Amino acid sequence: MTNVILCGGSGTRLFPLSRTFMPKQFVSFFNGESLFELTLKRNFALCDKALVVCNAEQYFLALDKIEQIKAHKLPTNISYLLEPIAKNTAPAITLACLDLPLDEIVLVTPSDHLIKNMDSYGEALQKAKELAGNGSLVTFGITPKSPHTGFGYIQMGEDFNAESFIEKPKLEIAQDFLTKGNYFWNSGLFCFRVEVLLQEMQKYSPDIFNQCKAAYTKVTKDKNLRRIPLEAMEEISSNSIDYALMEKSKCVKVLPCDIGWSDVGSFDTLYEELPKGKDGNVILGNSLPLNSKNNLIISHRDKLIALLGIEDCMVIDTGDVLLVGKRSESQRVKALVEHLGDSEICKTHLTTHRPWGSYTILEDSAGYKIKKIIVKPGKSLSLQKHFHRNEHWIVVSGSASVQVGNEKKLVRPNESTYIKMGEVHRLSNEGKIPVVLIEAQVGEYTGEDDIVRLEDIYGRS
């Protein structure tokens, strides 16, 4: 059985911890582990293969997390399908199935959900495999604990048949569902045979099926990696698997289960899932709450956060953003992100991860920007140039191989080099230890989009 792991969510309700280039599934919330890592470890106990479907920008985040859990003897049978742009779950699942044998049983899971009851989960999955083997599209229905209005519901009829899907009902309707007992939260977990999924997609969403089939013929393949070209992905219609298929198909089964499930969809939910300290406070980082209780306090910096007489609040400090509010208002964080629009602050943290390593913005002011750059051993930045800035590189540790124009040289600790505006250049680490350097950018514009890549070993444009 193959676990198809969907990594497309952006987790906007957990901003500023979750951002476009570091979504919530890759943030280490749980004893130093991320939801993505927990998903891999949980499902490799039940599946023998994994296919990770993610945005091309997040591929290297996934690789980094997998590298971190090799000590747990995680199987290496992992493949990747990279989407240049997101088109929702129906295309993602269809494209994944086009890459798998027709008789393969597939478990589709989000990468950003939490499941705590492994015994019940294992039992549910065995039943799901049985139903899937008999030609059903199985969706896992979570036994509701409360009349939650933020979840979708599925009505179960006789013989586990899905009767209807209801999206985020009003409170009085959710209360009625809870009383009736045959309505379940829609978990976004699915199990089916590949052939059945493709047949049903062709029948009920032929446009998406044909678009995905056409796109898959243009996929570039390299061992365990599949890349979908941008122009092919742009031709695919965006839709969720629920709207495109599950609400239409006649072979959908609902499998009720109580598996300790949470979508970790808000700071209030995150608070409930994390261990509490004195006075009910959750503290991640350096904090001193006095006469304060039931707060979620997160700081990824050494800065002390002191609270006096504060209750039921969230205080989230990421260095470049400070979010303070009532935990009961945490669902409205998404509206805050929408208000910020396409701002760069919604896309990345002060530290941004790249396939070659990472960079941290130390200072960003009009006319200049200062970064700390870390390049992993054996890695290399793209061959590139800039139109609006000059760059000064000062090596702190390691030895950097630097190409500027046609000249190549080795820059050692406490040595520097200078790249003029418009010059073609590249930085590589051919050594055995990370290269750490300080980069000072000077120019009228220092945005990250002022990069013209001429050559890139990671397939970026």
From TrEMBL:
This protein's UniProt keywords: GTP-binding, Isomerase, Nucleotide-binding, Nucleotidyltransferase, Transferase
Record's catalysed reaction(s): alpha-D-mannose 1-phosphate + GTP + H(+) = GDP-alpha-D-mannose + diphosphate
InterPro entries: GMPP_N (IPR049577), Man1P_GuaTrfase/Man6P_Isoase (IPR006375), Man6P_isomerase-2_C (IPR001538), ManC/GMP-like_b-helix (IPR054566), Mannose-6P_isomerase_type2 (IPR051161), NTP_transferase_dom (IPR005835), Nucleotide-diphossugar_trans (IPR029044), RmlC-like_jellyroll (IPR014710)
Entry's Gene Ontology BP terms: GDP-mannose biosynthetic process; polysaccharide biosynthetic process
Domain (MannoseP isomerase/GMP-like beta-helix) ranges: 286-340
The keyword Nucleotidyltransferase belongs to this UniProt entry's keyword annotation: yes
MF-aspect GO terms: GTP binding; isomerase activity; mannose-1-phosphate guanylyltransferase (GTP) activity
Annotated EC: 2.7.7.13
Gene3D superfamilies per record: Jelly Rolls, Spore Coat Polysaccharide Biosynthesis Protein SpsA, Chain A
Domain Nucleotidyl transferase: 3-273
Chain ranges of the Mannose-6-phosphate isomerase type II C-terminal domain: 344-456
Group of enzyme by EC: transferase
Keyword Ligase set for record: no
PANTHER family: MANNOSE-1-PHOSPHATE GUANYLYLTRANSFERASE
UniProt record similarity statement: Belongs to the mannose-6-phosphate isomerase type 2 family.
Protein known as: mannose-1-phosphate guanylyltransferase
Organism name: Helicobacter apodemus
Top-level taxonomy: Bacteria, Pseudomonadati, Campylobacterota, Epsilonproteobacteria, Campylobacterales
